[in-house]
Amino acid sequence: MARKHSKHGGWQDLPQEEDFPAEVPDCWLCGRPTGKTIVWHHPVPKSRGGRDTVPMHPICQQTIITHFTNSELQRHGMDVDALLADPVVRKFVNWVAKKDPDFNAATTRKQR
Description:
The chain has a domain at about 25-95: Orthogonal Bundle (DNA Binding (I), subunit A), CATH 1.10.30. The chain has helices spanning about 60-65, 70-75, 80-85, 85-95; strands at about 40, 55. It is built from four helices and two strands, in the order E-E-H-H-H-H. It is mainly alpha-helical. Helix 1 (about 60-65) packs antiparallel against helix 4. The mean pLDDT is about 80. The chain is about 30% helix and about 5% strand. It has a two-stranded antiparallel ribbon with strand order 1-2.
C-alpha cells in the first residue's frame, strides 16, 4: 500500500533557485570566479587526513591531481603559494587566466 504523504517531504520542500547564494566563489588555485561547475577539492587528500575543502574549477583540480602525489599535497597543505611555486602549475595558471570560467580541456599526465 502506498503512503499518502512522503516520509521526507515532497518536491515543494526542495530549495528554490532564489534560496541559493548569488555570489560565486573564486577558485582556490587560479583566483578566477568559478563557473557553473564547482569542484570542492580537498587540498590535503582525505586519505591523508584532510577535511577542509576549497572551491576549484574542474580543470584546475585536474592539473593539481595530475602533477602532485598525495604525499606532496599533504606536505603543501593549504598553502596555495607553495603549489604556485611549481613552474608547471604557474605556467598553467598564467595560461588559464585568459579563459572562460567554464573552460575545460584535457590535461597531460606528469612524466614520472
